Amino acid sequence: MITDRTPGSSSRRTALLTASFASLMAIAIAAPAQAQTTPAAPPPPATLPADTADNTAQDIVVTGSRITTGGFTAPTPTQTIGAVDIARNAEPNVFTTIAQLPSLQGSTGVTTGTNSTSSGQQGLSSFSLRGLGTIRTLTLLDGQRVVGANVTGVPDISLFPQLLIKRVDVVTGGASASYGSDAVGGVVNFITEKHFVGFKANVQGGITTYGDNKQYLFQAAAGKSFFNDRLHVEVSGEYDHEDGVPAGGFGEQLANGRSWYRTSTFINRNVTNDGSPQYLVRDHAQAYQYTKYGLITGGPLQGTAFDVNGVPFQFQYGSNGVPSKALPGTPQFGLVSGCYPQGGFCLGGDLSGNVGIGTTLQSRLDRYNGYGRIGFDLDANNEIYATVNVAQVDTMNQPNPGATKSSLTLQCSNPFVPASIQAACATAGITSFQFGSSNGELPANITVYPTRKQYRFVGGATGKVPVFGTTWHYDFSYEHGENITDIHVKNITLTPRYNAAIQAISLNGQIVCADPVARANGCVPINIIGGTPPSAAALAYIEPTNGPFQHTRQTQDALAFSFSGSPLSLWAGPVSFAAGAEYRNEFYHVVGDPYGNGVSAETPYTSTYPADPVLNTAGNNWYAGNYHAGRGSYHVAEGFLELNLPFLKSDALGSANLNVAGRVTNYSTSGTIYTWKVGGTWDTPIDGVRLRAVTSRDVRAPNLSELFAAPITTTVPNFSNPNPNRAPGDPATLTILQNAIGNTALKPEIARNTTAGIVLSRPHWLPGFSASFDYYRIKINGVISTLNSQQEVNLCYLNNITTLCGAFNLTPPAGTAPYVNLQAFNLASIFTDGFDIEASYQFDVAKIGLPGRVVLRGLATNVKNFITDPGVPGTIPTQGAGVNAGNTPSWKLLTTESWTTDRFSLSVQQRWFSDGVYSNEYVVCSSGCPVSTTQHPTIDNNTMPGAFYLDVGGSFNITKKLNAYFKIDNLLDHDPAPSPQTNTGIDVNQALYDTLGRLFRVGVRYNF
């Protein structure tokens, strides 16, 4: 039976039910359609959206525009989370609250990236709008850029001051014309209280139902005015500790009683044309190349495993597998009949050596934050100010247990090999055997310790002045930011030393390392058969305390000036105008340790990292965490103009305005580029109904990492030379040096972003109700992506893509090795579209005899398409919409219901995303399958369930100044669905599913 590549009838029913539910939700409940101004402290009721409130008495700053004037309505949809919403959600990090918005897909945080050693992104909290990645979302603090916390340029939200946040605006459309590079998916703007007066504090604690991830949070802020309310001073400080959720052990044992891990895996039968599916989705996959304490994986003794005491026993293969016991060099060497050689899996059997669950479920985090602002009013309308933000985040994660090794070769004469195995070797006529181990004998597992420190200083002036009879707003600022990132890795092996230490011989009655060079340089042998820990000396040799280390310094200097006003009025109202100029310089310098980076002027050998002839002076000596040195900088100069033109005002036809903007930007690396937007709104004569639409050209410039990546050189044997015109005698295959480097010739990615929608705001027949529906469409060309070295060469010679031909030289001068520079290029494209539904309804409940006010709100996002085209001949575009193994489920929903009185508040929140698939490229079948191809492989199951999470919370005013509260996340303790892998890694999508379980938090707030 064959089915198509799209989800089956069950998924279609889900989509229909989802659409119906979303339509009802849009009519009944959800979040405000535009920015709203919300009081700073609970429990007052939420206010109405700013675009429908009375704006005559104040000027509204709309994040989707640079125009500052009363009554202005931007055409770009903007979602808002106010201080009340943040307080009600009671998260220790405001990042988590914002990341729950359905339009934010693929954000990174303390539960993602925990299986990584070398990425540098562990514990890094950054937003991703529309699933386009954190590098395509611009995050601002009070409308100003923030220095990156990673060489990709993304900031760490954990480093932001959080207690003084007044609201967070999320612009869900392109905004490069207003704010510059990176605003392709949109903008997230944190807006703080500028003139806070008084004192407030928050103390909070939390724990999961499993007794882990213990949390405690302390926050305090104070503000006071001096000199007749002209000098404003405010300070805040925070400390947040989160234990995190530790890794499980070997096999399938999760941390602290969790039971959802099943080693779910894609089994590759490696048969494509027998009428059965090539891939099988199965639980309890067994990797048969290693066990916890060692397994002979090839040769006549294959299938002999060792227990913790080093005693041999017959390994229990899954799938009733039988080892081939074939000799090296034969086709069956290392294979197990009944199992699956592609990937090396059996099903069931002894799973004690599996390592996938040995990954931290949430990184440990300690967050320190200090913030201060001083402002002085020159007069009633003009202020000069300075802010300082000093913050630090320390995190820790375990990427995997042990240090898995397969395809090792041990000599039968090795004195650590049990006598019975030495005798069996002699009987079989062999002198060595192939061996694999999870290295369960190592006393401690790999741990990664990233620390990020941020120093950010801003000075500026803001206000308004009269010019020729009209009022003009201005804003001038200078920002200097520095981010220092240090990453230390502990309990990790040096591969060359490990390889030397496992090869032991008996010499003069002592067990020593076999290699005399290694022995002369401190090698101490280790026994990897069984679970006896290495001696202190052996451990110090293979795992020196000076493990992998990386030090990165990033700086950002930004100078900005803007002004706006309404110089004239037309028949439909005042014409508003904004303009400005900005200059920014970005710099980074990273240094890795000499064992990872290699010996260089920046990383010479020292007494801490002594020279060792066993090690490679070119680096890459660690099991993982081989950091490399690099540096780079670029600067940007740009100017922008924005115009809002009212052109219709009529009782019969309503009112309408046209909003246009343009920006010219010059990058020191890629030259000049232009961005623009054209949009408008129409307040129709139908009560409360507004139409809005905007289209824009947006850009993302290449970041420091892409331009100036720290170089990494590796040797690649058997590289194919496809040059059809190669000279006689030039080899068809050769060994090359592959240099992974940055590409300073990269150009900005260019996006076309369009949104159009309808807003219903407080109609007279339902004054507490607002709703909106918006369609979005984004196409990004010239997406920066990396090819492998063979692709680069093939595309040059076989597809005549000449831009790649300068990245390699396979016939260099004599004495020079052939090389390929592995770089990023502007080849790929991304297309995504879908729609957002938002609504809110708030009302007093006095009519039914109850006190207080009820607010119902919710947001839903549908992803119709998310198509990625690699831009490489021979590949096809892939559809990511509805792929729950990725970041873009078809539907994502957030709804809240709250009841607030003068004494207490109660709230309920629902988070949900729809059922999906593993990949839209799979062909689902059980029999009669077509031929399975690389582009459309066959599989027996392609359904990945969605998830529903229920959160509840409440607060009680003990006094007018003291408020106690509680929050329970994932009340139903819903387990995540497996996201099968092609190996035995952590088989869950931590960016989409809750992996922690039920979480309790309680706290007390004081507001004076």
Notable characteristics:
mainly beta; 22-stranded antiparallel β-barrel; five-stranded mixed β-sheet; 49 strands; about 10% helix; globular; tonb box; Beta-barrel_TonB_sf; receptor; TAT_signal; transmembrane
Report on the structure:
- By secondary structure, the chain is mostly beta strands.
- The protein is built from eleven helices and 49 strands.
- It has a 22-stranded antiparallel β-barrel.
- The longest helix is centred in the first third of the chain and has 20 residues, at 9-28.
- The chain is globular, with a radius of gyration of 31 Å.
- The relative contact order is 0.14.
- Pfam families: Plug (PF07715).
- A motif (TonB C-terminal box) lies at residues 991-1008.
- It is found in: Cell outer membrane.
Structure, briefly:
This protein is mainly β and 1008 residues long.
- What's the shape? globular
Report the count of strand segments.
49
* Unreliable spans: 1-58
Largest sheet: 22 strands, antiparallel, barrel
The number of helices is: 11
Strand content: 35-45%
> Which value, in Å, is the CA radius of gyration?
31 Å
